[in-house]
Amino acid sequence: MERKNIMLSFKGEISTELLTSILQIIENKLDRFGESSKVKKRMFNIMVECLQNLHHHISQPAKDAGKELPSVIVMVAKNVTGYSIITGNFVEEQEVGDLKNRLEEINSMNKEEVKELYKSVLADGKMSEKGGGGLGMIDIARKSGEKLDFGFIPFGEDKSFFSLNVKVK
Amino acid sequence: METIQIEGTPKTPTVKFDEPTHTLVIRGRSIPENSIDFYKPLIDWLDQYANSDASELIVKMELEYFNTSSSKCILDVFKKLEKLKNNGTSVSVRWHYEEDDEDMLEAGEDYDAIIDIDFEMIKVEEI
C-alpha cells in the first residue's frame, strides 16, 4: 500500500544534473496532482535545501568499507496528511555529535523561535567554506513547520548513515 | 557607468538595470549551488553604482524561490544598498510576493527587519 504513494525513489551518486532532474520530476508530479502553488513552492524549496545539503555535506565511506558502492538515498512520498521528503547519506562519525545537537536544538524550538534563529544566523553574515552558511536545516524546519525526523546508524569505523525525513503539509 | 544585464536560467534569476528609471530588477529563481559566484558581478556593480553620482536606485525583488545559499548573498546585496542609502542616495526596495506565498512575504520581512531600509511589500498574482 505504502509503495503506491512513492513519487520518486533514488539510490546512487548525486550530481548537479541529477539534482536538477529530481526537482523537475517532482515539480511535474505536483502539477499533475493539481497541488496549490503554496504547497508546490514549499516542496520545491525544501527539496532544494535537502538535495543541496546532500551535495555539499556528503562523505563517502572508503571503498573497502562495504561491498555495496557508497550512495545517497532520496525518496519522496505522498501520504494522507501531505508529503515526506526522505534523504539518507553518509557522514563522518566525528560530525555526528554536532549535527545531532543542531537538529535537536531546532526540534526543541517553536515556530517563532525557529524564525528568530534563522534571522540571527542570516544576519551574522558568516558563510561556511561550502557556502551553506548553516541555514539549510533551519530553513527546512521553518518551511516544514513539523519536527525533523532523523536518525544515525554507525557504519564501519568512522562513518554514520544519516537519514532525514521532512514532512510537508 | 556600465549597466548590468544577466539573463535568467532555471537556477539563477534575471538581473537587469534600467538606467532611465534607475530601476534594478532581480527576477526569477535563485537556487545555484554556488551563489557567491553568481552574485559577485551584482555586488561589484553596486560598488560601481555607489561611486557614480546617481541620486536614486529602485530595486524590484521579484523572486519565485531562493535557496539558503542565495539568502546570504541577497543580504550582501541589501547591505550594499543600505550603505548607498547612508551615503545619501535615495534607495527603495520593492519586495514582490505571490498572493498565497506567505513564505516569500516572511522572507521579505526578515530582510526588512535586518536592513535599515523600509521595504515596500507588493502582493502580485504571479511572478
- Structurally, the number of domains of chain B stands at 1
Just give the CATH class of chain A. Answer: Alpha Beta
Q: What distance separates the N and C termini of chain A?
A: 20 Å
Broad shape of chain B: globular
Task: Write the CATH homologous superfamily of chain B.
Answer: STAS domain
Largest protein interface?
Answer: A-B, 29 and 25 residues
Task: State the CATH class of chain B.
Answer: Alpha Beta
CATH domain topology of chain B: Transcription Regulator spoIIAA
Flag low-confidence runs of chain B. none
Total separate domains of chain A: 1
Major β-sheet strand ordering of chain A: 1-2-3-5-4
Helix content of chain A: 40-55%
Structural class of chain A: alpha+beta
Shape of chain A: globular
Largest sheet of chain B: 6 strands, mixed
Q: Tell me the fraction of residues in β-strands of chain B, as a range.
A: 25-35%
Count of alpha/pi helices of chain B: 3
Instruction: Provide the helix percentage of chain B.
Output: 25-40%
Verbal overview:
Chain A is of the alpha+beta class and 169 residues long. Chain A has one domain: Histidine kinase-like ATPase, C-terminal domain (Heat Shock Protein 90, 2-Layer Sandwich), CATH 3.30.565. Helices cover 44% and strands 24% of the residues of chain A. Chain A is built from five helices and five strands, in the order βααββαααββ. Chain A has a five-stranded antiparallel beta sheet. In chain A, helix 1 runs antiparallel to helix 2 and helix 4 runs antiparallel to helix 5. Chain A starts with 5 loop residues before the first strand and ends with a strand. Chain B has 127 residues and is of the alpha/beta class. Chain B has a single domain, classed as Transcription Regulator spoIIAA (2-Layer Sandwich). Chain B is 39% helix and 32% strand. In chain B, strand 1 and strand 2 form a beta hairpin. In chain B, helix 1 runs parallel beside helix 2. The radius of gyration of chain B is 14 Å and the shape is globular. The chains are: A alpha+beta (169), B alpha/beta (127). Chains A and B meet through helix 2, helix 4 and helix 5 of A and helix 2 and helix 3 of B.
